[in-house]
From TrEMBL:
One of its GO terms (molecular function) is hydrolase activity, acting on ester bonds. It comes from the Bacteria. This is G-D-S-L family lipolytic protein. The lineage of its organism: Bacteria, Pseudomonadati, Bacteroidota, Flavobacteriia, Flavobacteriales. InterPro entries: SGNH_hydro_sf (IPR036514). It comes from Aequorivita ciconiae.
């Protein structure tokens, strides 16, 4: 088979502006800024990796120092804000150790390979952050990477004994006040006068990034039974989120709540085009000949036997043409026809039946995830040059987020956001619509002095090399959104920052 896909993902390098952050609103006279009706003297930020400052696939010192809560706290100082502490990592590698064994990978950097192609690679080196070395808190930044909504109220989430089984969080282990403490308890024990809460992203994100490998747990009210990639039931989210807001505001503290963006706003799901397979006419004809019996005999036979519907048969049809094509994939949502195809009247060999059992072609409504860029078009078996990923070997479901899976995510996201907005309104709290803000980044971008911030992978400036978490510049943008909401709600005049003076992705120099 000739001229089959040579797929390469080209990354453009963006230069780092080498200057210190400065105010978007310049400071003029002492006392010009004030906190309005809010008290910023004790600010506690609660959330997940986004709150912690996670970026490019890891948590590391420089990322933490550019976390949006830390940027906000620096601005709060001009309006009565107090000290803001964070559970800093030991280095800028970003990996984690458990008793000397590495359990979390180092961060991504943008590097150039031997052929001169730039792309993200994991930074080499042995990390020095061992989670058994407990930190002395408390800490104002209570962002815990990987945390879902219900994890914030789960006793033992910081117990190191639970880490190997996935029952505890290694990041929270480092700074939990005790083995049975909850994140919310440790946050509330600091008696915050002001708080931020951004949680719920991971309640749908792990399902999305796994290509829908988890289960939509809507209707299951027991999160203890959930898998790591499952969608959290909206009622569970509403219950635990209400508990968290009540606890944080119980002492009269004011705060800001942030809703959940659509996954289609982040480059992890939008960078790889669905029509990613280039074929010439001869190769397309050859492939179509291989699938002719499947398309014209097997699928109609299955419809005639009422095994599948005509609609499902149309979805399963495999057609290639000259030009750009959709790859083939395995769809776990489809009926598994493997056993049926091995029996009469088809009597297909087991290997062929297994290939066709849940086979279909990606379509325009699907999303191919960022990690698929490293495998599409490759020949995983050097002894079989005809075995090409996405062409003759289907992509596994983990690399494609189907339209049906996206619909489940959207339904849950909308339900979570309804809860968040209702609580913000009921309690008079500031509210940030990150769903709308990230949608603007993905659809045209956000202008700032010196450029345009977009969600374009690598070159857009907003998102880091993991395609999910912001760069320092992206976090600066988020901090400004927070400050604008706080100023509007509490009649404050807290200064924002110039986002263009915060770093974005640059080429790594060893």
């Amino acid at each position: 088979m000739k001229n089959i896909l040579k797929y390469s993902f080209a990354f453009l390098v963006v230069g780092l502006i080498g200057c210190e952050p400065e105010f978007e609103n310049p400071v003029t006279d002492d006392g010009f800024y004030n906190s309005g009706t809010a008290d910023l003297s004790k600010f506690v930020a609660v959330g997940n990796s986004l709150t912690a400052g996670y970026s490019s696939g890891a948590l590391y010192i420089s990322g933490q120092k550019n976390s949006y809560p830390n940027i906000m706290a620096e601005q709060f100082e001009f309006a009565g804000g107090g000290e803001f502490t964070q559970p800093l990592m030991n280095d800028n590698l970003g990996g984690l150790l458990l008793n000397g064994m590495q359990i979390a990978e180092n961060r991504f950097v943008l590097s150039v390979d031997a052929n001169g192609n730039p792309g993200p690679v994991r930074l080499e080196g042995t990390p020095t952050t061992d989670i058994t070395n407990k930190l002395s808190g408390p800490f104002n930044n209570m962002g815990v990477p990987g945390a879902k909504s219900f994890h914030l109220v789960a006793p033992g989430y910081g117990n190191v004994a639970g880490v190997p089984m996935g029952a505890a969080n290694p990041y929270f282990v480092r700074f939990a006040s005790s083995e049975n403490a909850t994140v919310i308890e440790d946050a509330v024990s600091q008696n915050p006068t002001f708080f931020s809460l951004w949680i719920g992203n991971n309640d749908i994100l792990s399902y999305a990034t796994s290509g829908g490998a988890g289960v939509d747990q809507t209707g299951n009210f027991d999160p203890r039974s959930y898998g790591s990639n499952d969608i959290t039931d909206p009622n569970v989210f509403a219950s635990v989120y209400s508990q968290q807001v009540d606890a944080l505001s119980a002492g009269g503290a004011k705060g800001v709540l942030v809703n959940i963006p659509e996954i289609t706003s982040i480059p992890y799901f939008t960078t790889v085009p669905t029509k990613v397979i280039p074929l010439d006419a001869a190769t397309a004809d050859q492939l179509n000949a291989q699938f002719a019996a499947y398309n014209n005999q097997i699928l109609p036979g299955l419809v005639g036997a009422s095994v599948i519907t005509a609609q499902e048969a149309a979805l399963r049809k495999i057609v290639f043409s000259a030009g750009q094509n959709y790859p083939i994939m395995t769809d776990d949502d489809l009926t598994d026809l493997t056993q049926i195809l091995q029996g009469p009247p088809f009597n297909l060999p087991a290997q062929t039946a297994g290939l066709l059992g849940q086979l279909r072609q990606v379509n325009a409504n699907d999303l191919i995830v960022l990690t698929a860029s490293s495998i599409i078009g490759t020949t995983p078996d050097p002894n079989n040059p005809q075995g090409i990923m996405g062409v003759t070997i289907p992509l596994s479901d983990q690399f494609v987020l189907a339209a049906s899976e996206q619909a489940r995510i959207t339904t849950a996201t909308n339900a979570y956001n309804t809860t968040i907005k209702a609580l913000a309104d009921a309690k008079g709290l500031a509210f940030v619509d990150s769903k709308m803000a990230l949608s603007q980044l993905a659809n045209g971008g956000i202008p700032y002095d010196g450029g345009m911030l977009t969600s374009q992978f690598v070159t857009g400036g907003a998102f880091s090399l993991d395609g999910v978490h912001p760069t320092a510049r992206g976090y600066a943008y988020i901090s400004n959104l927070m400050i604008h909401a706080i100023n509007s709600t509490y009649e404050a005049t807290i200064p924002t920052v110039h986002i263009g003076n915060y770093p974005t992705i640059t080429l790594w120099n060893n």
